[in-house]
Amino acid sequence: MYVFDAPQQASLAVEGSADRFPVRRIFCVGRNYAAHAREMGKDPDRDPPFFFTKPADAAVDTPCTIPYPPLTDDLHYEIELIIAIGKGGANIAEADVMDHVWGASVGVDMTRRDLQWDAKETGRPWDWAKAFDFSAPIAPIKQIANVPSVTQGRIWLAVNGEIKQDADIADLIWSVAEHIATLSQAMTLAPGDIIMTGTPAGVGPVVPGDVITGGVDGIGTLEVTIGEKA
């Protein structure tokens, strides 16, 4: 028994199925494309990857309309390859990572950029910039057996039909196998974990009424409309 009704399980759509993927945690890899690292004022390097998190219920199915969030005047998009974990484990070897992957998708790491810059300047965590409501719109997850590759393929994003981000997931500084293996050294991964693998260069702001489209070749596409301010 609970003192009030337990929250509904966060979940995402599965491509071609009425079943849903239960979301346990959302891990995000920071600065995982060299060109994006440069545009954020950092040198691209092979230092160990770093991670931040979003709450599970930040995930939202696409297509969708999300409200422009409070406390910001600088909401940015970041298109990302999404990996969905189906088998848990700790200290996973790079060669074994794909045995733990249930599927893949494409999503947008919505970011309150002004709050992120403030956090960086003051040495504070990024939570207020990254971990807000509706901050992880994600397309239906495709089972990994139907995914042609998580090591190469065009990744792109457009705003109102104008291409803003256009790269290849082969440009990841840390591959899917590398950064998931690293993450599993810090904590035990579990079924339902989602990994947002980083964004290429070209991030920028959106305003209410803008329509974001994007995708990863062979994996999926999405559409997100920015609604009025919450």
Structure write-up:
- The protein has a single domain (11-229), classed as Fumarylacetoacetate hydrolase, domain 2, CATH 3.90.850.10.
- The protein has helices at 34-39, 113-122, 127-130, 176-186, and strands at residues 11-13, 20-22, 26-29, 51-54, 59-61, 64-68, 75-77, 79-85, 101-108, 111-112, 136-138, 142-143, 154-159, 162-168, 194-196, 204-205, 211-216, 220-229.
- The longest helix has 11 residues, at 176-186.
- It is built from four helices and 18 strands.
- With 230 residues, the chain is mainly beta.
- Strand 1 and strand 2 (20-22) form a beta hairpin.
- A six-stranded mixed sheet has the order 4-3-15-8-9-12, covered by helices on one side.
Short description:
The N and C termini lie far apart (34 Å). This protein has 230 residues and is mainly β.
What is the rounded distance between the termini? 34 Å
Helix content: 10-25%
Tell me the number of helical segments per DSSP (H or I, 4 or more residues long). 4
- Number of DSSP-assigned strands: 18
CATH architecture: Alpha-Beta Complex
What structural category arises from helix and sheet content?
Answer: mainly beta
Strand content: 35-45%
Poorly predicted runs: none
CATH superfamily: Fumarylacetoacetase-like, C-terminal domain
Reported by name, the CATH topology is Fumarylacetoacetate hydrolase, domain 2
Main-sheet strand order equals 4-3-15-8-9-12
What profile does the largest beta sheet have? 6 strands, mixed
Q: Calculate the mean pLDDT score and round it.
A: 95
Shape: globular
- Output the helix-strand order: EEEHEEEEEEEHHEEEEHEEEE
